[in-house]
Amino acid sequence: MKSVSLLMSLCLFVSAPLQSTVFVNQAGYLPHAQKIFFTSTPADRYSVIDCSSGKTVFTGTIILSMKNDSSSGITVYKGDFSSFTQHGHFRIITNTADTSIAFSISDSVFRDVAVKSLKGFYFQRCGEALLPQHAGAYAHNACHLADGVFHPTSDTGGIKDVTGGWHDAGDYGKYIVNTGVTIGTMLMAYELFPSKFSWDKSNIPESGNGIPDLLDEVQYELRWMFKMQRWDGGVYCKVTREKFEGFVMPEADTTAPRYIYHVTSAATGDFAGVFARAARVYRPFHPAFADSCLDVAKLAWHYLMLHPSIVPSGGFMNPAGTITGNYGDHDDSDERLWAAAELFSTTGEEQYQTFYAEHYTEGELIAETMTWANVRTLAHLTYLFSNRQSVNPAIQNALRQSLIDYAKELTHLIALDGFQVSIRPKDYYWGCNSEVLNRAIILILAGQETHEHQYLDEALAQLNYIFGSNINNISYVTGIGAHHPMHIHHRPSGADHIDEPVPGLLVGGPSHHMEDYALPKHFSSATPPAQCYLDEQESYASNEICLNWNAALVFVAGYFSVDDFSKMKPANGSK
User: Fold this and answer.
1) Which of 139, 191, 366, 468 has its CA 20 to 30 A from that of 59?
2) Catalytic residue (one of 489, 490, 512, 536)
């Protein structure tokens, strides 16, 4: 067995042990917040080693976290060094001589993550050259300057300028439905916590203009969304080729037309909700832009009222011959509810409150996270946090209680998991990392409402999982941590001949359902679900990126980018 003194020297002179059985948050820890690590080794004590001096600066006890953890397939142990608040770079070494990847403790660890994850949206920009002064090695020429041609199955002919916006995921399509929940999440983050998202130095073209970079980046997408509305208020659902493009740089994707597909009521409802919220968020910065946002939101609402049934009938499905993102949605009641909640919160007009009050109980209250397929929770959160004087306090109280009840349910799930992650074994599906972070958002909001520190600790535990406290010992965000994805399903990263992928992008995470061709070659239904992850380009079900996933990351990392924990009750930890 290696001696502890030898391992101390490894902390100083050897690259990170990527096969370590000690799992830490590779992004780092806040000085005054909870600090937890996990291990699969049945050790009983650990030391925190200062990487600059090799000295032991803290010791503690390792305890059982979960025997035979059903998600990871191992017995998990944990250590808590929350009471250690020293800034610096450190490693954990157990008394069985296992050592962790190095990590930092500082006030800025999550600010760095928030800035990089927001910059990830810049790298997804379409229709604009990414210049070296902003994009560095990932610079490339402007792309998709011929968007778009109306698809033959749509009810419109000819062409329309729909250039701009963000590429949706690892492909180059642009989709209103997924953009809806993405921007809804990001604008909610800014509106609820403006001081945490006020930075203006992300090195995007608009940085330094006195407007938070989050709002500048979102506005780039909003300008594209404007173009997707038809004269009558209806909104076209997407712009894509008929079949996914190959792994080429975006400016080389010129071999097939990019079509504009049908007007749908789901896209129109998302559009109305997004622009109604944008109208009030942007008003202090761009009053004329805010007016335009409200005008198009009301026009979209008018379309919805003229078409009370879902458009097209049964919901949108890709027409024959089209094999790109479907984002099929057979129920538009949640989009209509969200549009009403946002328009009421922005205007205070009774017609919108009446619609919300008449329909808000048709589905669950706050009992799940917001997804592209169901934005009902976004509608409820908007109404819950509305400051309109005419808001119905009884409805708000019911929503508040449902938020707290859901947070309690998540607390129960966290207690059942060895790595303190809030999803169950059956929840390891395509994009589950976004569900982890969206549940962290719920916990953050419950913590804000109740002032209970436990919910914020549990939200932080979800970040720990994302950044390395997981069975795969990997930070699931490119460019963050010593061990992060290198071969993501992302066309620019696969085609740019640069070893490192585009930074700041969250991958989907383990998928026990194995919805691609790569995962079944390595795993089976008997594999513990949290292990079903591949850092391979072909594994789109576990290693692709997507806008709405990054939006949740921006929210959670941005919330923790300011260390407020020193003002709260002390965190527990062994010495």
Assistant:
1) 468
2) 489
Q: Is 489 a catalytic residue?
A: yes
Q: Which of 216, 342, 535, 536 is catalytic?
A: 535
Tens digit of each residue's pLDDT (9 = 90 or more) over 366-414? 999 999 999 999 999 999 999 999 999 999 999 999 999 999 999 999 9
- CA 197 and chain centroid, separation: 15
What's the CATH number for 4-105? Answer: 2.60.40.10
- Which entry of 69, 171, 335, 516 is annotated as an active-site residue? 171
Residue 457 annotated in active site? no
Domain boundaries, the chain: 4-105, 144-362
Give yes or no on whether 4-105 and 144-362 have one common fold: no
Contact 306/265 with Cβ under 8 angstroms? no
CATH 1.50.10.10 given to domain 144-362: yes
pLDDT digits (tens, 9 = 90+) for 507-564: 999 999 999 999 999 999 999 999 999 999 999 999 999 999 999 999 999 999 976 6
Catalytic residue check, 155: no
Dist CA 217 CA 364 (whole Å): 32
Residue 155 CB partners (closer than 8 Å, separation 6+): 262, 263
Q: Which residues pair with 264 in a beta bridge?
A: 235
What 3-state DSSP class applies to 77? strand
Length of the chain counted residue by residue: 575
